[in-house]
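Open question from group meeting: does this chain pack into something compact, or does most of it stay loose? Before anyone orders reagents, we agreed to write out a predicted structure and look at it together. Recording both the input and the output here so the notebook holds the full record.
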Amino acid sequence: MGPYLDKTPDVMLAAADELDLPVIELPAEVPFIEVTEALLQQILNRQHALQEEAGKIHRILTTLVLDGGTLQDLARELALILERSITIESAGFEVLATAQMGAVDTARTRSVDTGRTAPGVAARLIERGIYKQLLEKRRPLRVAAMPDLDMHMERIVAPIIVSRQIIGYAWIIAGDHALTDLDDLAIEHGTTVAALIMFNVRAVRNVE
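Structure tokens returned:
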């Protein structure tokens, strides 16, 4: 506040309320650089902590694959780390591994019970461009809740890629707490490990 404004204009407050945007007033004697430096430090600390957690997950999953872990072991480990339900499926939408941790929705329960994503649900996801985006971006994708498909919870889906081909998908179900940046990083590490496991299984099968 000051020297040009004694108070925040009502029109600005009204606009901010409509957008759920916080407005923070600072006294004129507070140097703005002090605020930005404090905020930047918080951001850097948070990013450092995130990378530390991601590093731990990477080490755990790398050890798992080196010890001969299976897709089921991978799903169980990710579920324990993230406290969320995990599903790993083939490119044909067949459930290959699953681990439940916390709340799930009807779509997830049905796919686990039947051993595959329902053809109708898969078709609708294809129509909405979910798999096309995965093919183009080859990165994890957040999927908003789709109540019409009994998907009442947000998800992250990531492609499992071997030799530039998508051979499967890994899903994280949000459950009863919001998804975080750590979930995005964890699923990236998880799909890399899943690709190694699936490639190894394929190689052994070819040799046999």
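Observations to bring back to the group:
Helices lie at 10-18, 32-66, 71-82, 106-114, 119-127, 130-137, 181-207.
The first strand starts at residue 85 and ends at 90.
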